[in-house]
Amino acid sequence: MHNIYSKKAYGFISLLGFLAFFVSCGKATDSQQDHRPVDRLAEQYMFHLKKSFLYLDSIPDERDFRKVENYFLLARKHFKKAEPILAFMDSENYKFLNQPNITKVEEEDFTDIKIKSPKGFQVLEENIFADDPDWHLIGKTAKVTSKRIQLVHANSTFDFVKPYHVLWMFRDGIVRVALTGITGFDSPVLQNSLTEAQYVYSGLKTTMEAYEGHFNDKGLYQKTMKKLDAGIAALTGDFNSFDRYGFIKNHTQPMLGVWNEVVKDWAVNFPFDEAIRNNATSLFSDQTFNISYFSSENFGVLDQKKAALGKQLFNEKAFSRSGDMSCATCHLPEKQFTDGMKTSLGNTRNSPTLLYAALQKGFFYDNRSGSLEGQIVDVTTNEKEFHTDLEHLQKVTSRNEAYVEAFKDLYGDGTVAEGDIRNAIASYIRSLTPFDSKFDRNINGQEQTLTADEREGFNLFMGKAKCATCHFPPVFNGTVPVTFKESEMELIGVPASNDTINASIDEDLGRYHVYGTKERKFFFKTPTVRNAALTAPYMHNGVYETLEEVVDFYDRGGGVGIGIDLPNQTLPTDRLELTEAEKAALVAFIESLNDEVPSTQTAKDKRMAVK
Q1: Residues with Cβ < 8 Å from 541, sequence gap 6 or more?
Q2: Cα(466)–Cα(473) distance, rounded to whole angstroms?
Q3: pLDDT the model gives residue 470
Q4: How high is the pLDDT of residue 598?
Q5: Cis omega (within 30 of 0) on the bond before 482?
Q6: For 296-434, CATH number?
Q7: What is the C-alpha to C-alpha distance for residues 2 and 403, in angstroms, rounded to an integer?
Q8: Cis (ω within 30 of 0) for the bond into 84?
Q9: pLDDT under 50 in the chain at which residues?
Q10: What torsion do the CA atoms of 226, 468, 281, 201 make, to the nearest 10 degrees?
Q11: CATH 1.10.760.10 placement within the chain
Q12: Range(s) for CATH 1.20.1420.20 in the chain?
């Protein structure tokens, strides 16, 4: 993707941004005050979908570039107003319409690998506002995008929609704006993110207007609307200089509190928790996430006793064939659960932190495992790690009376099952999500110690530097908000050595080793940036020793920027043009993400150790 745009676009963007809130969303609902709220919601949704595809239909036969740009911006405006409902009601079609302009690879198994060319609004944006537009591709993409919206329009039903669905839609809309909407994630060329976020908030206002009758507390309704208006007013200014920290702290976070008030006022009971807990009041807290959502097992609240048992097993060296390696050998608590080495002993890849590892949908650098329990199988059988089997883990555990009693108490079985062993270790790893960094405490209002550089670094991370388009907050890893269903992999072009003159790609093929898909060569999972200041060296091969070197690599445009030929690089190849002060601010922000990690063993832990 290229960070280029036509200056001619600015006039249209500014005009649309100015007119957006003075033009009626349509008279489809004006005379429908007596309708059920869900009917009004459906009418408004269908109206915006129709307007969007009609504007797209005007693009293919138009050769006046100003009109084409205008049609795109108007289609996008209505798409964004429908976004909270569309993304919730039909997530797959939403992803199709809003996908990035990169080749999509779907690998279900060796017999089901699909390579798909990108479609949708981002493809249109990058081509319409290019220096040399490809009119054929623009027309073709506009038609495909329109047809998909028409398909959604023709097949949408609101028969199942209940008040709790509406509240989920609403919260998702608020959270999506904060975590991806204001970052340029889906407006990479125009960076029209702030205006588009206003459209989303405007759509959310319409939703609340439809459900005004559900409010028992009319003052709360007014409070909700005023909060939305305040959010709209705040979403203004220049993309690069926008204060994202201030917006999230002063608008998104308080809006979560108001949302919880609305839930109580409507007397809504949710049937289950999604990725974000239904009672969450912050996006940056150890109470934010429903940990079981990221597991194949729905266990509700994490069992701390299982986590404590898992902690002992995590440190159990007898699990390895040699008897001198445990999980903690490569994941030392005092090193933020890494080992501080370029590559782990006997391995070819750097040891990643286990902090926040539970908040992912893929494991290992190549995403070859889909769960923590599955990851443990791989470690157990890997000849460069434990080099044994699951039966050996059972035997070791069964020989220790303290372990046997603990498993009997926690899992209710007279024998120790290997699945329970893996679950206990996984439970410990799931407990390693502290959200107790300086940054967390500040954005949650617990202290006021964040420096100007740290705050500026966050704003750069979320904006100009484009970091957050791959390292998504609040975990700052590759698990995509707001559904958190996918942990993304990227090709950024990590070199074999720290050489910007004669750079060559590192020979590790990454994801390619899993399925042999050539389009996946050199793809690796996006790790968390939390605690990165304490987990050097960096990248899958440990090529960079400092955060400053990492920032410089990204500032240059990744592998392509240092001269490596990588046609499939997903990282934008243009230089970021960061100043030295901006680079230093980025590092300062990353340093503010450090957590305090408790000592590895308590007295109780030691009593359970194998004799």
Answers
A1: 342, 343, 348, 349, 350, 494, 496, 506, 508
A2: 12
A3: 98
A4: 61
A5: yes
A6: 1.10.760.10
A7: 56
A8: no
A9: 1-33, 600-611
A10: 20
A11: 296-434, 452-591
A12: 8-271
Supply the Cα-derived Rg of the chain in whole angstroms: 25
3 state DSSP class of 374 = helix
Q: Which residue is it, tokens 């940036």? A: 529
Identify the CATH class of 452-591.
Answer: mainly alpha
What integer pLDDT is reported at residue 27 of this predicted model? 41
Q: What is the β-pairing status of strands 112-116 and 524-525?
A: unpaired
Q: How many CA atoms lie within 13 A of 7 on its CB side?
A: 0
Q: Do 538 and 506 meet the contact criterion of CB atoms below 8 Å apart?
A: no
Q: Where are the beta strands (DSSP E) in 507-594?
A: 524-525
Distance, in Å, from the CA atom of 497 to the CA atom of 512, rounded to the nearest integer, reads 21
State the Cα–Cα distance between residues 44 and 133, nearest whole angstrom: 33
Burial class (CB in 10 A: 0-12, 13-18, 19+), 604: exposed
The CB density around residue 405, as the number of other CB atoms within 10 Å, is 11
Whole-angstrom distance, CA of residue 139 vs CA of residue 330: 53
Strands (DSSP E) along 389-502, which ranges? Answer: 489-490
Six-digit token string for 210: 């439809």
Closest CA to 205 of 457, 348, 25: 25
Contacts of 338 (CB under 8 A, 6+ apart): 330, 331, 332, 350, 351, 352, 353, 535
User: Which CATH superfamily does the domain covering 8-271 fall into?
Assistant: M75 peptidase, HXXE motif (1.20.1420.20)
